[in-house]
Amino acid sequence: MTQLRIPPQKKMTGMFGHPVAENPIDRMFDAVYQHYGLNWQFWKCDIASEADLPAAIHGAKALGFSGFCITVPYKIAAVACLDAVDEDVRVIGAANYVTFDDGRRIGHNNDGKGVVKAIQKVTPIAGKRVAMLGAGGAGRAMAVEIARAGAENLTIITRRESQGREVAELVHRATGVPTEWVAWEGTIEIPTGTQILLNATHLGSAPELEPVPIDWNSISPNMTVVDVITNPRITPFLATAQGKGCAVVDGVEMLVQLAMQIFEDWTGIYPDEAVFQAAVTAALAE
Fold first, then answer.
1. Which residues have a Cβ under 8 Å from the Cβ of 65 and sit 6 or more positions away?
2. Which of 15, 30, 196, 246 has its CA 20 to 30 A from that of 81?
């Protein structure tokens, strides 16, 4: 009699946020898991309300998740639902992924590190004047890590004064880099002398493709322009910047850089970047 072979239980990972439908992260991770012969799967979980977030995070433990990512708009709110956080989360006040250690949910933040690695593929950050649009959970991490990478100064541009001033003070307190807040009112004129400009908002994401309201006459060809949006890869913001002669860094490159570290922390495998790049390119082509 042939004995039935029961395959090992699939390990689950995922992402909690709202909305999540347009993000290619699940197809990218699943392709990388397959490449390395791992019986793992990545689930995108749309958590419609912050009131449901604690239940979702507690449920991940009950369901046996091996780790999960946290995306907008819950990177700050999620911190209170975790058992412990690393030093980056303590400084930044937001988490973008979670590992499990003997059942304890440990929060981490490598949003900023992924952005720094992506930008440094195109231009050095040290000694540069940087401006950033938006200062949410991802923006906080980006601002801190860009300052840590040696930026000369940083300008935070937000609609909400309390948010912008809080992040500006956080960056200066954590790094000593001069950081100022500028009000986002109407069409934004980018400060003279800016060398790196980041869009850390969700303006320009599919399917709405809302324009980023900046004065393009304040953009010079020697700027490097960066967008966190992953879909589309070349947003209207980046396309316009390219038309002005600027070098650009897209959100997919950032996603690859931070996802590699997350994958290593979850699986213990140091991945080949080419595997991630091929996986995300295939995911975007679907």
1. 12, 13, 14, 100
2. 30
Q: Is 183 helix (H, G, I), strand (E, B) or coil?
A: strand
Residue 93 belongs to domain spanning: 11-109+255-285
Please state the pTM of the whole predicted model: 0.91
Judged by phi (left if over 0) then psi (alpha if -120 to 50, else beta), residue 51 lies in: alpha
Which residue matches tokens 């938006």? 134
Co-location of 34 and 66 in the same domain = yes
Please list the residues that pair with 226 across neighbouring strands. 198, 249
Mean pLDDT, rounded, for 243-268:
97
CA dist., res. 142 & res. 92, Å (int): 9
**Do residue 102 and residue 166 come from a single domain?**
no
pLDDT tens sequence across 29-61: 999 999 999 999 999 999 999 999 999 999 999
Give the position of tokens 């940083």. Answer: 154
